Amino acid sequence: MAQEIKVPNIGDFKDVDVTELLVKPGDMIEKEQSLISVESDKATMEIPSPSSGKVKEVLVKLGDKVSEGTPIVVIEEAAEQPADKSAPAPARPREQVQPEAKTQTPSPPAATSGPASSPSAAPAPAPVEGADLHAELLVLGSGPGGYTAAFRAADLGRKVILVERYPDLGGVCTNVGCIPSKALLHAAKVLTEAEEMREAGIAFSKPQIDIEKLRAWKTDVASKGAKGIAGLAKQRKVTVIQGTGRFESPKVMSVALADGKSQRISFDQCIIAAGSSVARIPGFPYDDPRVIDSTGALALADIPKRMLIIGGGIIGLEMACVYDALGAKITVVEALDGLMPGADRDMVRPLERCIQKRYEAILLSIKVTKLEAISSL
Description:
Number of domains: 3
Radius of gyration: 28 Å
Number of helices: 7
Number of strands: 16
Shape: globular
Mean pLDDT: 85
CATH class of the largest domain: Alpha Beta
CATH topology of the largest domain: FAD/NAD(P)-binding domain
CATH architecture of the largest domain: 3-Layer(bba) Sandwich
Helix content: 10-25%
Largest sheet: 5 strands, mixed, barrel
């Protein structure tokens, strides 16, 4: 019987691009096998098949845009065949017997009048003594490395548990990094382009910036990405546990849950994808609210009159661009002799020429050795 497979609920994503076709007409597929890959500006995901069968037709092509309910593949479901009791059961990969060495003398058959009994099937993995749950694969951290690994393992049939310390999935990238920074950079680009059109004879009045609305919009963009990842985890039956993990042994993790309780999880294999944290310079007065890291900068507590950016790398310049567009006067200090170390110099030079016209100062080959908190001037 032919079945039309449609895009399931993938969170709040709409009109996402098809980036890869993972099957073609004539392919035999299994249940939960991935059919296509789609990508938005927030996440990349694979759409699995809800049933097994033979691919009859692929209804989309590379570059198409799909949303929930879009037909993507037509399959002919595999009819269930009655079990043939006379045929031997195929050996499972975990039960394959290695051939004996030629020098080994085979053991004589057991003296019995009945048929030889077949080896018993290997029992399903069970929690170690005292553990509350067991996973074939335990993933610590739900950032881009963690959740993609968890989803791929689940697609391949593994029982997966994903441990994340924060309420929202997606890690730094989705919640306090790539996604919110790109949202703010988009707003900064609109403000900057409107201002630069004055040279072309088109002048706009000074924009009125509602910082609370801008902050809420940025948060909503990130939240949609996190909800989409949570929906994909649920769709793949990945168990998500919020808490902080600590290894008790090579096969057991203790998770301190958000409600104060704890849970012990045993596992066959584990992927550690704990991500990164903000580097702090010793001696800096981080207790002063005017000293913020990249996470604090993305929180948009206010728009200062002046801002000193320590570090002329990609993250520092992203924040510089945002706050410059919002009206702050920017100074950038970089210890090396060029901005964005490691990037192609031919790409950095045009950027440097552009921002030199806008920023108060760009100080290269200068290292900040001391930062002292004094009363505001």
